[in-house]
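Researcher: We're teaching a course module on how sequence relates to structure. For the next exercise, students receive a sequence and then see the predicted structure as tokens, so they can try to spot secondary structure elements on their own. Here is the exercise chain.
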Amino acid sequence: LEHRTATSVPARPHLLSLSFALADGSHKNMQRDQSEPLGRVLSRIATNALKGHAKAVAAKKSRKNRPNASGGAAGAGPGPGPEPAAPCEPVVKLYYREEAVAEDVLNVDAWQDGAVLQIGDVKYKVERNPPAFTELQLPRYIMAGFPVCPKLSVEFGDPASCLFRWYREAKPGATEPEGEGPSSLPPSSSSPTWTETGVNERVYTPSNADIGLRLKFHCTPGNGQRFGPSRELESVCPVEAGPGTCTFDHRHLYTKKVTDGSLIRTVSYNLLADTYAQTEFSRTVLYPYCAPYALELDYRQNLIQKELTGYNADLICLQEVDRAVFSDSLVPALEAFGLEGVFRIKQHEGLATFYRKSKFSLLSQHDISFHEALESDPLHKELLEKLVLYPAAQERVFQRSSVLQVLVLQSTNDSSKKICVANTHLYWHPKGGYIRLIQMAVALAHIRHVSCDLYPGIPVIFCGDFNSTPSTGMYHFVISGSIPEEHEDWASNGEEERCNMSLTHFFKLKSACGEPAYTNYVGGFHGCLDYIFIDLNALDVEQ
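Model: And here is the predicted structure for the students to work with:
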């Protein structure tokens, strides 16, 4: 058999996908209804083959009659030759076990593994639902010393069963030794020479030797039993020099390995959404010390990927995550290192929580918008009754778009063990102390409902950017379990919006990392705004 054709059932279950290469080199992809008779598909294939042949003849004729340097027709001879006979529509048949499949058989039954599709003199072996890449993409910006994590999606396969191979572009003027075998790809008249890097894994970290050279990624989809058609990608730009030693490199010395089953290494990180990094205020006030390239998303994503993957964390809670950053950058990078993530949009950006797949599976998700939950969920009825007494404050609270992401994860080793993981980003304004107090009251009530009513007794980890230093009412409320109505934060935006109320919550929480001198350091401010709160009744910090 000279060629291979693939059939698959796509996301729309009533359709059948057919893909194959014709003798003229063109690739055909067809979507047909599964309930359609086979004869209609074969007729369409015959028509496509005839068109492809006609195009090939026309192209050949055009090349034959192209003028040469002296003005004549190259290879034309003394006069025009006879016109080639019009091609006949090729015979197209589908065979199964050496017998022709009747044309009234439906597609869903006709296309079976091991069948043979014949188009003229060319035969194709049919593979039903072979592994195939539905998405494959390399990052645009690649730096030496930083992992390159291709974005890929596999249909009828899984990344763990795929084969990967990385190549680097040969340096200009360099010659490769003969007899290298598969370690080098021969050049064509229009392509460079590629040399194998020796890395046969999904992730490749370029070295300084790769600077100035482009990369090629060769991958073959698989499912543990068979492989599908290979694909190749070349990087758009050459590898660039990295920034050298980063501040997180020292921290990575303590996180070289994934923790054992009894420990949960947790990371919380506000990534700075691109929509905020590119404002004039950011460039001139918050980050005046940053060169413009250092605020560019493509550059920052390399640093973010390397830092996060180097922590070998079991849980990663992220804030200010652009939707595209989540899908195109974080998911490919962290998935390659064994983590799976979920995303919750806010407005222009949102929250993302990743968990290690070898330790946890996602049991359920219970996200809320603070103002929507406060307005409509009976769980917050008492708090709402207090807030409506202060209309100005109520209006401000309802204007905020902050959200809470809540996951219930189940241990992959012991299904009886579960944990509630919460992630949030509270209102940012320095005068919004009372808004953050109310948002936190809503958050804790909702987390209590999940961890006590829906899944009684499961421990809680609550991460986020809370925009509150240890001296604020929000932090006092979380740690002590209550906040008095006379606390100064109830008037954080002046007397007009004062909303005195006393609040309590159920949990016994502490900051797992204590109170660092700062988690945020920008022009004009540095302080501790981010925390990982843990349930002291069930969790403790490994010293």
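Model: If you want an answer key for the exercise: The chain has a mean pLDDT of 88. The longest helix spans residues 38-64.
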